[in-house]
Amino acid sequence: MKHGRIDVIGLGDYIREQRNAAQLSLRQLAATAGVSNPYLSQVERGLRKPSAEILAQIAKALRISAETMYVRAGILQERAGDEAVTSTIAGDATLTERQRSVLLEIYAAFQVENDASRMSGDNTKGTS
After folding, report:
1. What is the pLDDT of residues 66-88, one digit of tens each?
2. Residue 108: CA atoms inside 13 Å, Cβ hemisphere, count?
3. Per-residue pLDDT tens digits for 31-69
4. What mean pLDDT, rounded, does the chain reach?
5. Could you tell me the maximum CA-CA distance found in the chain, to the nearest angstrom?
């Protein structure tokens, strides 16, 4: 998948999988996301290319991060780090979208810092 290009079929499959996992009907998700039922159906079937704003609305309705949706759509590049950590943070419904985003940014900054330390041969990781 190329950065910046939306894989509409893969994205539609992902949205359908998430909707089924959340045990929501197409109609329920459409209403919660503020989009029409036919439009959401077309998105799930890969016939429509949703905007970033619509993806954010669908993500919010599914209680997943907009960032996760953007990565699946190919709008954003996937972050480095342990996928279990990033997925857990991104999927934590007890956090606000802003809190999840800030935590992911901090985690990514730690990853960059640790990579730079490894490259320079600094083995004092974890000490002050």
Report:
1. 878 888 887 776 666 677 787 78
2. 14
3. 999 999 999 999 999 999 898 889 989 999 999 888 788
4. 82
5. 56
CATH of 8-73, one of 1.10.287.610, 1.10.260.40, 1.10.287.1080, 3.40.50.700: 1.10.260.40
Supply angle C-alpha 124, 80, 59, rounded to 5: 140
Q: How far apart are CA 64 and CA 38, in angstroms?
A: 22
Of 52, 53, 67, the residue nearest 97 (C-alpha):
67
Q: How far is the C-alpha of 17 from the C-alpha of 24, rounded, in Å?
A: 10
Q: Which long-range contacts (CB under 8 A, 24 or more apart) does 115-121 make?
A: 115/80
Among residues 22, 20, 1, the alpha carbon closest in space to that of 10 is found at 1
Phi and psi at residue 109, to the nearest 5°: -65, -40
Measured distance CA(67)–CA(101) in Å, rounded: 8
Query: Where are the chain's structural domains?
Result: 8-73, 83-120
Reduced DSSP (H G I as helix, E B as strand, rest coil) percent helix, strand, coil of the chain, to 5: 65, 0, 35
